Amino acid sequence: MLALKIIDIRDFTNKLFIGEVFDKFCLTEATITTFNTFTIDGRLQQDFFDTDTLNKITEYGRTHSLWKDIRPFCWSVIRGKRTPLGFKIVLHLSRSGMEAAMNNTDTGISSDQISGLFLNLQFKNNSLLCTTGISLRTFSMNKRPEQLWDDTILRFLSQNQILFEKM
């Protein structure tokens, strides 16, 4: 697990809520506290979609909404003259993104054994923390997948000019 403190919160939140930097991630959950607390469960409700749309969505094993689809709702809650009291957003890579990230490297375990690669974003007390996480389907002492995910996030943040310090 990697814990990072975001240095330029304004730049980061612009990239998160207005820009497209995080759009390829899926949303696990989001909680935003302003004058109320708003909670979004990122799981797709399959009964809502017609058959063709559902087939397109689930073709790659997707079970959650993409951040790009939920981002405008979150932005509408946050924008305004006052800073939110806080937010917690949990993003994860799609199944195809996870397979691409893990299959091109020697992790010592197959991508089928990985349930998820997560990016947790938490803003409170005017501080923004970013932590990584990995969920495995089976117990393993192998830390290589976790290290690769951490390295991937560090590269992602650097490539997108997001300033951070390790904690």
From TrEMBL:
It comes from the Bacteria. InterPro entries: DUF5721. Pfam families: DUF5721. This is DUF5721 family protein. It comes from Blautia aquisgranensis.
